[in-house]
Amino acid sequence: MAELDSSAICPECDGRLREQGSETICEDCGFVATERALDRGPEWRSFDGEETDRRRTGAPLTRSRHDRGLSTEIGYGTGTDSSYDTRLTGRKRRQIARLRREHNRARISSKAERNQVYGFAEIRRITALFSLPDSIREQACSLFDSAQAENLLQGRSLEGFAAAVVYATCRTHSIARTVDEITAVARADEPELRAAYDALNRELGLPTGPIDPTQYLPRYASKLEVCAAVERRAREHATRLLEDGIVGGRNPSGVAAACLYQAASEREEWATLTQATVADVAGVAPVTIRSTVTDLRERS
């Protein structure tokens, strides 16, 4: 029952005001003095009736799931109640298990959805191993979906396309990841990745450009265990090569490694690096390091 407030007076008829729900109305003329549309109750819900499992909402929409994360699941219990299974008889438990199995089968209605489930799972695995942000994972899954809509997956491996879309997304966002790094964790080899990437770039027109060699410097400097001064000096070398237009047509990973090699050799107190060591870190041949170092020394 609503409480009466004798001190509140209606501005229209001097009658008494009463709170009813979210409104304050006059008992005599029905004038609505105030209304509160805000819900003062809790923003969470409890599904077990004991208010021990407080859930605000379900999972957000995501492109990394074939159904955008909107499908339902038949769970194994309600919240944190561990005695859920003990309240079911053996016959009922077997029935729920059959329903759960058939429900999971019904979630995938076609071969295309099955390919999406497998491809998206591989993309999530690769991006998790590289600690890439969620936006990269979402865009990679969207690119995989676009490739499937254009029938680019026919005759090519799903693993290769999953690795290719991650590599392509990193390229479009100027994230320095080489093909060797992707294939080291993917379930596809380099020819499969390159074939899928060429198809993506040719048919979808990816906005990929040359990668800035300076993007590789922090990671390579950490692997080679050089000081910050060497990295700063290598960044100066890479910037000068970019301004002179020498980087065009060269492997940016090799250019970054060559800049680190040249920077480390300029002072005796800095760690000495060999061309074979930096070439192994960058995944290039030592001759690639030598050619870039030669250009650097000619311009110094």
From TrEMBL:
GO terms for cellular component: transcription preinitiation complex
Domain Cyclin-like span(s) in chain numbering: 121-202, 215-298
InterPro entries tied to this protein: Cyclin-like_dom, Cyclin-like_sf, TFIIB, TFIIB_cyclin, Znf_TFIIB
Signal sequence range: none
Positions of region (Disordered): 43-76
One example of a Gene Ontology biological process annotation: transcription preinitiation complex assembly
UniProt keyword list: Initiation factor, Metal-binding, Protein biosynthesis, Repeat, Transcription, Transcription regulation, Zinc, Zinc-finger
GO MF entries: TBP-class protein binding; translation initiation factor activity; zinc ion binding
Pfam assignment, any one: TFIIB
Biased segments, Basic and acidic residues type: 43-56
Tree of life domain: Archaea
Annotated PANTHER family: TRANSCRIPTION INITIATION FACTOR IIB, TRANSCRIPTION INITIATION FACTOR IIB-RELATED
Family: Belongs to the TFIIB family.
UniProt-recorded name of the protein: Transcription initiation factor IIB family protein
Biological source species: Salinadaptatus halalkaliphilus
Upper lineage: Archaea, Methanobacteriati, Methanobacteriota, Stenosarchaea group, Halobacteria
